[in-house]
Write a structure and sequence with these properties.
Layout: H1 2-14, H2 16-36, H3 51-62, E1 72-78, H4 88-102, E2 107-111, E3 125-132, H5 141-155, E4 160-165, H6 177-193, H7 196-224, H8 228-258, H9 263-290, H10 298-329, H11 375-385, H12 387-402, E5 410-411, H13 423-435, E6 443-448, H14 455-467, E7 472-475, E8 479-480, E9 486-493, H15 500-520, E10 523-527, H16 529-563, H17 567-592, H18 597-600, E11 608-609, H19 612-640, H20 645-672, H21 680-712, H22 721-726, H23 735-743, H24 750-755
Parallel strand pairs: 5-11
Antiparallel strand pairs: 1-3, 1-4, 2-3, 6-9, 6-10, 7-9, 8-9
Helix pairs in contact: 1-2, 1-9, 1-10, 2-7, 2-10, 4-5, 6-7, 6-20, 7-8, 7-10, 8-9, 8-10, 8-20, 9-10, 9-16, 9-19, 11-20, 11-21, 12-17, 12-21, 14-15, 16-17, 16-19, 17-19, 17-21, 19-20, 19-21, 20-21
């Protein structure tokens, strides 16, 4: 692989005009497609194989025309202090608003509060339920505007009016912190390279890659029903890995220049060595993201595939666009060790002749002929001298951070997790105030009595059994369909939708349904948004272990091929589990317990988002393997060329620690930039990924990994001979390039490829 990528790097360096033109054309094409495509809405939400989805499908069959998947809105009214909603003036305002809403072209029905028993006991709060013919993502803007205008006209009379439900669901915003994250990445790159030009290359290529990926997602959003969150997550991951992958190749290019190579050859070797690591690191991320399909939740599958596509684009751009831009940059990108104009003056005469690129790769200490040890070298030397102490300290520290994860509670965000500045959150709070917390998450019980001899008796039995359960505030009478074989019953819990008590009530109703079916032959199903959220959480929990086995297993096999070792991939996987558990503990502490919630902008604590554990496992595993591949391949490269195991660890840190540190800081900054999002799911994922990268890069890869390798010694690189013969030689370390160089011929086979 190294030889092929070497040829590709040199070809891109020579034919830089052609390569740049291709990527600019792709960016333009994707941008035009995004500009002409319909705007993205909320992706359709289905959970195949769950009871909630089965009941939802049954409703569509037995209640045709009821628009079971139609958008809903609750217009909540609150009377001024000292007044009631039953006062003549307030009642007239509400009835006028209901009449205006009923005239909408996409409105299926509007329930009058005064005829539907939708006024609170103290008479201060009332609500009107609006049902639409189409889903929230299909609502026309004129319909949403009419809803907002009707609410505003009611406000003008002195009432407090807020609108809940999914009809006004807004596209999430990331806020200014995203830009701050990119700015931090730019500063880190400038410090790392000491040059504005070299620092600008990773940023430029990452932005091009993300632009192509996100624009393509936007262009396909309507056709594939991709939600707006999909593009945000693709941007988050694509931007982080895009900068990192380019950073590693540019850094290796500067190291090759420092060894005295010509620029074209240095570009080829950078792509052949660091580019090989980029390919395998990117492949692990893609495997982890595409593997989310095993959960069998379409929305999660689409998110994973879209983000994986953006990562694949980032890999391709790093392998081709970076060497092309290095060709354009010329001598403005200096060898490693040379000081750029931004941070200081160049050494005298550094760039006067072509031979100036042969800058020594390390500074010399005063009065000595030995290279000056950098911080990575000093840290690695300390770790290999005290490996057991460092290992224990790292494991105990991550274990302590993971303790909160033992209290993990899962759920899906609802209007109660929205910022208090939104009308949906204020409507949620008003309904809780007037009707109780459970009113925001009613349960819909569907009774299928098609197999019962006495359907009406079955309906009555279900109603009676539910009324006798703990945690139930109200139960509506059964509402049968025209055929009389199916009925719906609405159950209002006494606890909020995301609480453990509501989940227990759902299970209690389902357990009671089993007894009723045995007695009457009628099947009882529980659905609604609250039940769907509970089923999603259960489905994700059930899928976590199979997903771990699949993703970690495939990546383990891939890393055996890369490192030609059994223990190194095993150590990498175990270290990942430590970092992801510690990150989950931090998420629980902030978003569930409320620690530092004000600093993070968390206005409402509650259960952790259901898909957070499995999503973090997928993404963090891929990113963790990035650092593993980039850092440990340098160690293996030194080991296979004759260095002792401990010295190989130090050498790997000497060449890779600074770059891996910069990459981790950049990735943390990019992820942390999404903490400012108005969408609670994006905020939680941004924080979780940022803290996970911190734990994995600085505790696992920088401390635990060298400590374990020092303790294992030569055994770390052991591989059975039969397996060594069976595995393909992918040559990530660039051994083929080094061998050709030692023969004095150089890997110049790419000349025929260029001519072709």
């Amino acid at each position: 692989m190294a030889t092929f990528l070497y040829k590709l790097g040199r070809l891109a360096f020579r034919r830089r005009h052609f390569v740049a033109l291709i990527w600019v054309a792709l960016l333009t094409l994707a941008g035009v497609g995004a500009a002409s495509a319909p705007p993205a809405g909320n992706s359709s939400f289905s959970i195949p194989g769950t009871e909630a989805q089965k009941a939802f499908d049954l409703l569509e069959q037995r209640f045709p025309g009821a628009s079971a998947d139609g958008a809903t809105a609750r217009v909540v009214f609150k009377a001024p202090s000292g007044e009631k909603m039953t006062d003549a003036g307030n009642k007239a305002t509400v009835e006028k608003t209901v009449g205006e809403l009923a005239d909408g072209s996409e409105v299926a029905s509007v329930a009058d509060p005064y005829t539907g028993n939708a006024v609170s006991k103290d008479g201060t709060i009332a609500y009107a339920s609006v049902k639409y013919d189409v889903s929230g993502m299909e609502l026309e803007e004129s319909t949403k505007d009419a809803l907002e205008d009707a609410a505003q006209q009611a406000r003008d009379t002195g009432l407090t009016v807020e609108v809940g439900g999914d009809a006004l669901q807004a596209v999430p915003e990331t806020g200014a912190t995203e830009v701050i994250g990119i700015a931090v990445a730019a500063v880190v790159l400038v410090i790392t390279f000491g040059s504005l030009v070299a620092a600008g290359l990773p940023l430029l290529t990452a932005l091009i890659g993300v632009g192509i990926g996100v624009s393509s997602i936007t262009a396909l959003a309507s056709a594939l029903e991709l939600g707006s969150t999909t593009s945000i997550l693709a941007m988050m991951i694509g931007l982080a890995v895009g900068i990192d992958y380019a950073l590693f190749i540019v850094s290796r290019y500067r190291a090759e220049l420092a060894e005295g190579r010509e620029r074209e050859d240095a570009a080829g070797r950078a792509v052949g060595t660091a580019g090989s690591a980029v390919v395998f690191a990117g492949l692990t991320v893609v495997i982890a993201l595409v593997g989310l399909a095993v959960v069998n939740i379409p929305m999660l599958t689409k998110m994973g595939v879209a983000a994986a596509g953006t990562v694949a684009i980032a890999v391709l751009i790093a392998l081709t666009m970076i060497p092309a831009l290095l060709g354009y940059a010329g001598r403005r990108v200096k060898p490693a060790g040379a000081k750029g104009k931004f941070l200081g003056r160049f050494r005298k005469g550094a760039d006067r002749t072509p031979g100036a690129d042969k800058t020594p790769g390390a500074e010399r200490t005063q009065g000595q002929g030995q290279p000056k040890a950098n911080m990575g070298t000093r840290w690695a030397s300390f770790v290999v001298r005290r490996p057991l102490a460092v290992l224990l300290l790292g494991v105990i520290g991550l274990g302590a951070a993971a303790v909160p994860a033992t209290s993990l509670e899962l759920g899906l965000p609802d209007d109660g997790s929205q910022p208090t500045s939104t009308t949906q959150r204020r409507a949620y709070d008003l309904l809780s105030e007037g009707f109780g917390p459970g009113f925001n998450g009613p349960l819909m019980v569907v009774v299928d009595a098609k197999g019962s001899d006495a359907p009406k008796d079955a309906f009555t039995d279900v109603e009676t059994r539910i009324k006798g359960l703990d945690g139930v505030v109200a139960v509506t009478p059964p509402a049968p369909n025209k055929g009389g074989d199916t009925a719906t019953i609405t159950v209002v819990p006494d606890s909020k939708p995301s609480s453990v008590q509501t989940e227990d009530l759902v299970h209690a109703i389902r357990d009671a349904g089993g007894d009723i079916e045995a007695k009457t032959g009628a099947e009882t199903l529980v659905t609604g948004s609250t039940a769907m959220n509970i089923d999603v959480s259960q489905k994700l929990n059930d899928a976590l272990v199979p997903y771990l086995v699949l993703v970690v297993g495939l990546a383990f096999l891939l890393l055996i091929v890369v490192f030609r070792s059994i223990l190194v991939p095993l150590k990498a996987a175990l270290g990942f589990l430590l970092s992801v558990m510690a990150a989950l503990g931090a998420v629980v502490a902030v978003f569930q317990w409320g620690w530092l919630s004000g600093l993070m902008g968390v206005e409402e604590t509650g259960p952790v988002m259901s898909m957070m554990p499995i999503f973090m496992v997928g993404v963090v595993f891929g990113l963790a393997m990035d650092y593993e591949v980039f850092l440990v391949t340098r160690m293996r490269e030194a080991f296979v060329h004759g260095e002792k195991p401990n010295q190989a660890v130090v050498t790997g840190f000497k060449h890779g620690a600074r770059v891996v540190t910069a990459a981790a800081v950049i990735m943390m900054a990019v992820f942390a930039g999404f903490i400012g999002s108005s969408e609670s799911m994006v905020k939680m994922i941004g924080f979780g990924l940022a803290i996970a990268v911190f734990f994995d890069a600085f505790v696992v890869r920088m401390a635990i990994v060298p400590a374990v390798l020092a303790l294992l010694g030569k055994r770390a690189w052991w591989l059975p001979k039969w397996l060594d013969r069976a595995l393909p030689n992918v040559d990530v370390e660039g051994e083929g390039l080094r061998t050709a160089d030692e023969r004095g011929t150089g890997p110049d086979e790419d000349r025929e490829l260029v001519r072709a």
